[in-house]
# Entry
Amino acid sequence: MFGLGIPELLIILVIVVLLFGAGKLPQIGSGLGEGIRNFRKSMKDKNEVDVTPTKPENPENKDK
# Structure
């Protein structure tokens, strides 16, 4: 996983705890999880409108 082993992950965890405090970790984790969930949901849902023409326009039939 990106060359990160257990020691590196522990160092990152200690830095995060020092920066945000132990009380904010559940809030950060839930926010991160919700963001990932929303991203996955948006990737699965196809709610975009396809505006690609089905056949190319004929230049001779264009209005002048």
Remarks:
- The radius of gyration is 24 Å.
- The chain is about 55% helix and 0% strand.
- Residues 25-44 form the longest helix (20 residues).
